[in-house]
Amino acid sequence: MAYDPTVLADWQIAAEAEKGMPSPAEWRRRLGLKEDEVLPYGRVAKLDSRRILNRRHARPAGKYIEITAITPTPLGEGKTTTTLGLIEGLARRGMDAGGAIRQPSGGPSMNIKGTAAGGGNALLIPMTEFTMGLTGDIDALTNAHNLALVALTARLHHEANYTDEGLAKRGLKRLDIDPRRVEMKWALDFCAQALRQIVIGLGGKENGVPMESGFQISVSSELMAILAIAHDLGDLRARVGEMTVAYDKRGNPITCDDLEVGGAMAAWMRNALHPTLCATVEYQPVLVHAGPFANIAVGQSSILADRVGLALWDYHVTESGFGADIGFEKFWNVKCRLSGLAPQVSVITATIRALKMHGGGPRVVPGKPLPKAYQEEGLALVERGVANLLHHIAIVRKSGVNPVVCINRFPTDTDAEVGLVRRHVEAAGARCAVGEHWRRGGEGALELADAVIEAGEEPAEFRFLYPPEMPLRQRVDRIAREVYGADGVSWAPAAEEKAKAFESDPRFRDYATMMVKTHLSLSHDPDRKGVPTGWVLPIRDVLLFSGARFLCPVAGTIALMPGTGSDPAFRRIDVDAETGEVRGLF
Q: Quick one: which of 296, 224, 338, 243 has its CA closest to 515?
């Protein structure tokens, strides 16, 4: 039975669907899992990936389906909705299907964008738990991240107050940390622009060493990158220990293991390594693991979740962040290289709304009503905006993966608008399906499911954009030209100096390239819509993630701590004092 999403809010649909949600014990029976492979957490469960993969490693892997999108409006175009709808549609076609999505950050959930649970009849349940912490992965990550800063600032304090002899009596040796070269900021999983830049250690020597500091949103932490790519607990522990927290006064890195905190950080995250099992409103299995923000982070559901899903069901649908220029590019050239997995199909989520924006439509502002142009037929805007969609199809094709376009249909979209997009997509030689899963659930995703099944049966010749031995600056140039459509790259002097140093040091030759760029444009400028031409990508810095083993070129101006808008979601969220039911989530 499909719910009426024009009458019921998402939290109300979730409340109804959760009445029939499988229990952890039911999931164990349904998925053929052993008792010690399922770790119940209230209404949901974590899955012990090590035990499952050890037992089922010989099973043929399922079809690997990736979900991406065109360049979105600030509201998002429904990748998670499409992910869940496709799983429901595949199940309606009799396929054994499941998926993996990312855990939402408290920042967007309490701000303007809302949760990342999908919507309507393509919704993840239990929605409230999913949106508000789930099984505590992000809390564990935040604690582990901040523990590194606790260790650093405590060490600075002790080194400032004790001689070498005094430190030795306390079992410490002087690390000679440079307080001006601290690489990490404190973590908080909300959008708090007031905490981007702060000063700590004020009030006298008992309160630590005065220094500039700041906060980043938790899901941008290097620990989230490590969680997304770690193969097991040993891999996670080793990577955490290698994270660079600061530099000493001679320019040498100070790692978590140098501060003797890597083990404790990994201990905080030990349970976060297990994916959490949730469900669609039609009760198909969905794993939740790792986090969002592909513009400043990995933005992928985890390698472990994908490996478990491929071992458990015949079609595994995984989610990448934002458009194909960011989320798919990282999936393609970083995640797949590290996992050894290759997808058969990539679904590009598109909306008429976003195409109109790229065709010159009015500015879309989160928290404000959509302009009239987005609520009435506008074929000219769609015609001009289709170029952005065709560019994303071309990006996916460069990987050798079969693209399928899903038009995530909104109630205001007209048949003429949808037909126009379909004609352009099919003329470009790609499959196109209209998805009405928001309104009709799996029944509304049958056309999409059929297109994905067909595409998945065709051969895919997966290939990377660049070889692993390619130097950093050449990689960035290739990504800029062939993925973003830039004419080239310009390097700020400090960024180029860093890049040259990384290129000349053999320790960094196998580091992945993790671009940091706005998601709101193919370019570095969020105001340039469509397919910008005649521009150069400016790189202003290169961040080092030595635990994840990433080099992160930063394009344009982008903050690791987003800000909260003037009309945030938390104004409309409340709890029923009698039942404890949370209302107002969207």
A: 296
pLDDT in tens, 305-361: 999 999 999 999 999 989 999 999 999 999 999 999 999 999 999 999 999 999 999
Contact residues for 12 (Cβ-Cβ < 8 A; gap 6+): none
Provide the CATH topology of domain 475-555. Formyltetrahydrofolate synthetase; domain 3 (3.10.410)
Q: Which residues are catalytic?
A: 79, 81, 102, 113, 294, 322, 410, 438
Instruction: Quote the CA–CA distance of 430 and 404 in Å, as a whole number.
Output: 6
Point out the annotated binding site for ATP. Answer: 73-80
Tracing tokens 């010989």 back to the chain, one arrives at 58
Q: Please compute the mean of the pLDDT values over residues 465-486 and round it to a whole number.
A: 98
Q: How far apart are CA 434 and CA 411, in angstroms?
A: 12
The 512-513 sheet, strands edge to edge: 489-491, 537-545, 550-555, 512-513
Q: What are the counts of helices (DSSP H) followed by strands (DSSP E) for the chain?
A: 21, 25
- What digits encode the pLDDT tens for the residues 278-319? 999 999 999 999 998 888 888 999 999 999 999 999 999 999
Whether CATH 3.30.1510.10 fits 138-259: yes
For the stretch 403-423, pLDDT in tens is 999 999 999 999 999 999 999
Shared fold status for 138-259 and 475-555: no
Sign of CA dihedral 344, 322, 100, 1: negative
Nearest to 125 by CA among 264, 22, 8, 36: 22
Joined tokens for residue 459: 């051969």
Question: Hunting for tokens 């559901």 — which residue is that?
Answer: 301
Closest by Cα among 557, 544, 502 to 225: 544
Dihedral angle computed from the Cα positions of residues 513, 514, 517 and 518, in that order, rounded to the nearest 10 degrees: 150
Alpha carbons 252 and 248: distance in angstroms, whole number: 5
What single DSSP character describes residue 2? -
Query: 97 has which bridge partners?
Result: 315
Instruction: Name the residue ranges covered by the structural domains of the chain.
Output: 138-259, 475-555
Please determine, for residue 1, whether its predicted confidence score (pLDDT) is greater than 80.
no
Does the model's pTM come out above 0.90? Answer: yes
Q: What is the 3-state secondary structure (H, E, C) of 169-217?
A: HCCCCCCCEEEEEECCCEEECCCCHHHCCEEECCCCHHHCCCEEECEEE
